[in-house]
Amino acid sequence: MRQFLLFIIIILVGLSFIGRLFYLQVYNSEEHSLYDDNAIRKVYDYPKRGFVYDRNGTLLVSNQPSYDVMVIPREVKPLDTLEFCTLLKIDKEQFKKIYKRAYHYSPRLPSVFVAQLSKEDYAVLQEKMRKYEGFYIQKRSLRDYQTGVGANVLGYIAEATPYQIENNPYYNMGDLVGKQGVELSYEEELRGVKGIKFIQKDRFNRDLGPYKDGIYDTIPQQGKDITISIDSKLQEYGEKLMQNKRGGIVAIEPATGEILSLISAPTYNPNLLVGRKRSRNFTKLYNDTLSRPLIDRGLLRMHEPGSPFKVLVALEALQENAISPETTITCSGVYHYGRRGTMGCHCGGGRRDLVLGIAKSCNSYFANAFRKSIDKYPDARKGVNVWSDHMKSFGLGNFLGYDLPIGKKGNIPDADYYDKWYPDFKWGSTTIISNSIGQGEVLVTPIQLANVTAAIANRGYYYTPHIIKDIKGDTISKKYTTKNHTTIEPRHFEPIIEGLYDVYEHGTARFLQVPDIEICGKTGTSENFTIIDGKRTQLTDHSIFVAFAPKDNPTIAIAVFVENGYYGSRWAGRIASLMIEKYIKGEVTLKQMEKLVLEKSLEDEYAKPYSGKPFTINR
Amino acid sequence: MYRDTNKYFQFDWLTIILFLLLVGFGWLNILSASHVGESFDYFNLNQPYGKQSVFILLTFGLIILILSIESKFYERFSSVIYIVSMLSMVGLFFFGKNVNGATAWYGIGGMTLQPSEFAKAATALALAKFLSDLNTDLKYFKDQVKALIIIAIPAVLVVLQNDTGSALVYAAFFFVFYREGLPKIYLIIGVLLASISISSLKFDDISTSIVISLVILTYHFTRRKKPAIIKTVFAILACVILSSGVEFLYDNILQAHQKDRISLWLRIEKDPAKIAEMRRDILYNLYESEKAISSGGLTGKGFLQGTRTTGKFVPEQHTDYIFSTVGEEWGFAGTTFVVILFVLLLLRILHLAELQKSQFSRVYGYSVASILFFHFLINIGMVMGLIPTIGIPLPFFSYGGSGLWGFTILLFIFIKLDSNRINEW
């Protein structure tokens, strides 16, 4: 026994060592990855971000160099903070705060100390940089906007959020990513792929040289240049027309679905969100809760469509054989329905057929058509659902699927919607008759309205609106080159288009005619309310207008929405005519009209609800 | 056939081959752990691996010298060797050089020499001489004390040099004593002491006391010849006192960093966040070395390819933590290979020791195995986090001239003694 004690112990120790090694190295071992190895420094090589061009090849967005001051807190030696702060244009409190934050993030890893120095500040600082150990300058690429317009379309880039860094392995702290507009939609195309160098370091975090002579290193892949469908001249003109007004304009090329311009007013200069003043400017824009310049009204502003919606009501009634183009009614200036229901009409009264009904925007005509198409079915629920499906085939009541990152669904009610709304009441076509004139429960966004106009211009189909025209070395999504057919047969569009043409010829938009261009359009005026001191108060109507031109082979379909602009032809209609002339002719001959629009400010109108005094509307 | 004509074959070549494999593989890992840049100069005296090359070359000279001296010399002069060795350690207090807070080196020219590394062999010789004396019998308390004094002198001297880790190695001689007739009760007491201490810290003193008392009572009542009841009661009492005393000692005597090490080792701390923090701060070396080992996986990252080794993330990697280099670059295959080499070497020495006809050679051989085993156990156990951090080198493997020569002398004296077992006495 005495002889064997040590023998046994040695064998046991040997076995338990092997067991422990097995646990450490085989069972519990994680696959060795260079990315997770903290003995390897990863140095990224950022590619050039792709340029953005407009449909005519005008450069809209390029890059400019910028310089970040970086800090590695562990390596910082005592320094002349006063001088350093002066050079960086920060105060000592800020210095302490930023330093603390960087230290908290990691004492060993670099953090951004001051981001995006100007070229001038960089020049001064660069010479003194060696005095400040632990700090260094990193060159980055910033966006350089060659244009002052289209901020809402172009979007902007900013540092990746902690959430993005955590959820997308591609991004690292301090990486710039697209946050809005095409910068976000086409982030992956524009950014390219960054290159990486693996550098062996020691435990004092010093570089020892390339890891394995750089065999795992990659070179960056340049970002792709993209061409967007925006016509920058038209965009600029539209923004000018919308000055001192609020609202949105969306113009689409019906034959392709390309968005020619997407205007939101008020807007801002995209260059405000570049460089060191970015965050101050952003806060300012963000906190402007009255005019909300960061909200893209073209995509996000839901409103009742008003009279342009009558066109869809008529198309649906035609498709359902509830009316024919020859159906006539006599308008007495008021439409009676149910036992006591009345709906006023401003068309002037008289015999109305379909074409005249559209031209004069006769409420009675479309209320009648809507009722007939619903009441055709014995069950109102069924009728409404059929109607709802037809409306939805125009891209209403849901996201359109365009390639910009934001949007609203709008609303097209169906039977379930009204069941919820009227739980103990048997509702019928007369209950919901307001929808026939685009008031009621229907909600649309300007881009949806423009898309409906494009579908009418195309006589029954549309391409999903999109902002992308070309990606260098790549193809655009098939989604944008496939026709979406509406559920209305093409033959029903002809009488409607005649009516829309008559709107310009002798209807509600007759004084908006543009020489030598045959325009089809429809005015819209939508009532709207706000709450002042707890009381529902009516404000001046929204001015709405949709149009396409030329009548045959249309090249532009447009929707204009001017908040509180009063009746449709007043501002929205004028703006639409000017935009159409500008796009088709390249210049504007309607100088008188242009002057009127440019000089008009609606700011006093917008100030009314906040004035605290009684005010009059619709003047 | 007279063996002397063929004397090279009297040496145990298996042991020598195992020795060479360990030294050679050790050198490769030292090279990896200490080289800087891409160029290699194998005898560059500014680099540890270069120095180690020189140490290894000198070792061969040392081996030839040891093997050419008559075996009788070692037995006859063991007392002298022991005294000289102890004096050399005493001399440190007058002429020693202080490195990292330990006064354990003589500076000779550019080189340093660590006498404590040679003292192990000297102590083993002296102990072998003492135990092989016909008048010595470890059953007697007087001889137990004498034997203890022989190992206590170098141990105390090493502690005084502020090198506590190395002093612990002298506990290895317990195996020798036990083999040579130390009464069993010491083994039982030793095991009891260790288990009571660990159990009181890991669990608590009351449950430990209850379990231990039950064990002792069972022992008492199952023996055919019952021991005196007073002895059993005394034993239980001692255990209970010890059990509560351990916690008192732990709380009041140990320093914070020692407590933390033990707490981590026994997994006393339960909060995972606190554990992670302690591992990072207190056991930085262990933390890095464990990471390096586990990052090696099954087959390792390849010779000179370990990222943590190249980046020198594990402090002292070429000395005490050399095993982590094996782990990172050679993986489980490499570490298992080293463990097997050591186990084979140790078993071979033990086997040879048991074959010795002279008691002197047997005791000496047993001492060699025990000392090497203790180094192996503590060093690799520590690097893998199985044992609290105690800084002692891995024999034949770690960087260092004194260590390498000390272990070589220790081993090769035994090989010489062993080669004579047939034609002597």
Walk me through what this model shows:
The complex is a heterodimer of chains A (619) and B (425). Chain A is α+β, with helices and mostly antiparallel strands. Chain A folds into two domains: 124 residues, Penicillin-binding protein 2a (Domain 2), CATH 3.90.1310; 368 residues, 3-Layer(aba) Sandwich (Beta-lactamase), CATH 3.40.710. Chain A contains 21 helices and 22 strands. In chain A, the strands form seven sheets. In chain A, strands 2, 3, 4, 5, 10 and 18 form a six-stranded mixed beta sheet that branches. In chain A, a hairpin with a 5-residue loop joins strand 2 and strand 3. In chain A, helix 9 packs antiparallel against helix 19. The longest helix of chain A has 24 residues. Chain A is elongated and about 120 Å long. The model of chain A has no long low-confidence stretch (mean pLDDT 88). With 425 residues, chain B is mainly α. Chain B has two domains: 308 residues, no CATH class; 67 residues. Chain B contains 18 helices and three strands. In chain B, strands 1-2-3 form a three-stranded antiparallel beta sheet, with helices on one face. The longest helix of chain B has 34 residues. Chain B is globular. The model of chain B has no long low-confidence stretch (mean pLDDT 86).
